[in-house]
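Quick one: structure for this chain?
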Amino acid sequence: MQTAAALLEIIHERGKKGLPLERLYRHLFNPELYLRAYGKIYRNDGAMTSGASPETVDGMSLKKIQAIIEALRHERYRWTPVRRIYIDKKDLSKKRPLGWPTWSDKLLQEVIRSLLEAYYEPQFSGRSHRFRPGRGCHTALREVQRQWCGTVWFSDTERFVICHNPEAAQRDAHMREQLVVQLTELIDGIDTLSEFKRGELRGKIAGKPGLNRYLRTTPAGKLRIDHKKIKFEENLDGKYLLRCSDPHLPAEDIALGCKQLLEVERGWRDMKQIIDLRPVYHRLEERIRAHVILCWLALLLIRIIETTAGTTWQQARPELNRLHLGTFTGPTGTFRQVTDLTNSQIDLLSKLRIDHPKKIIDLQTAPR
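Got it. Here's what it folds into:
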């Protein structure tokens, strides 16, 4: 009996060469395919939801797989009608139907899908992105970006500008390198494991988007590093796509305006942690207005610090973060003491005309 990986690899090669695929039904008698299918779908949200019968993934066993194979071998297998329910659409004005098949039907469907996918996937067009493994909206947009790299104007009312930040490019490359090293350690030596164990690991990695983006699954079910994805993302390191509603605005002004907006948001995030404000939820008009005003005040405070102290906020913030208040408790009582000021902190507070904090903030003796 061939392993699932070897069988799918053979079918994949026949599909790539355009050779006919014959006697496909007999491959449904291979239990390895069912174990592989189980590893792919047992973590799905609907695995514990019953269909027309109470059967779910909870009762999965090798005995059940053998029962399905025997029913197929003697042509006694019958598909069970799905349980139909209706759920609300996004606008809540209508409902759409949703069918729940039984677990045995789900398992057999996944086996059939894997066989057909291994054969037809290499024959599909490279410009087809929907409902294909490793493809989707993002790959379609990346192809548009790669093929239409000279296009700037998409309409008479909008303009798109691509900017490059060298520091962000280095940061993106470093983060990607760490993720690839971690992923390599996870899948190292996995080819020696069973199809079931590989499926379990694939399900765990799928729950980690950072690692899953650089993982690809071969038609034989083996896990590999997606080097094409890594190479493609290297071209996007530090690049930002800016959108402007004024098509006549220069690219420099668009980039400067977006940078200022980013500084406003960053200033708000930094200052709200210092002054301990609650998050502002964008539900009502007055809340939106309050968020905008607080962002402006946060940026104003940062600008005052920068112009008065003659430094940048990125340099001043680490110095202020080193100033701590400690609480010390002993047999005789409790006192709160500020850490010693560094020369940089003393100079910064002097330029801002802020009094130096007292050494001892609070002192309480223990009751006798």
